[in-house]
Structures are given as structure tokens and as C-alpha cells.
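Fill-in record for Helix-turn-helix domain-containing protein.
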Amino acid sequence: MTSPPPTVLHLETEPALDLLTVPQVMARLQLGRSAVYDLLRTRQLASITLGRARRIPAHALTDFIRTRLEQEAAA
């Protein structure tokens, strides 16, 4: 008789960080490439650079949308 495999607990100190490409952000916001790069250039949308690649954390996109919704509601 074999015993079941031991249960392994994975403790993560930080949640997984999803990084989006510019084309993925373009699709989600339904904006063109120039508009997305303008948001990045003006730091309205946070990003990181990995080599020559620009990546946008998913939470940064969520924060950007939330901020814009709050601005629209306040207007």
C-alpha cells in the first residue's frame, strides 16, 4: 500500500505580476499605438522597460482606468 504524496504548500510573498505588451493594452483600451505610447510618455500609464521591450503591469492598467473613471465622475 502506497501513501499519498505529501501536500506541498507554496507560500508566495507577492502575487504574480502580469505584464502586458503595448498591443495587448491597445486592444483592451481600443486605442491606437500612438495613443498608448502618449499615455506612457506622459506617465499617465506606468510601465517598465525590459531590454528594448516595454511592458505594462496589469495593475497599472487597472489603476489608470479607475483614475479616469473617478475623474469623469467628479466632472
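KEY FINDING: The CA atoms of residues 45 and 63 lie 8 Å apart.
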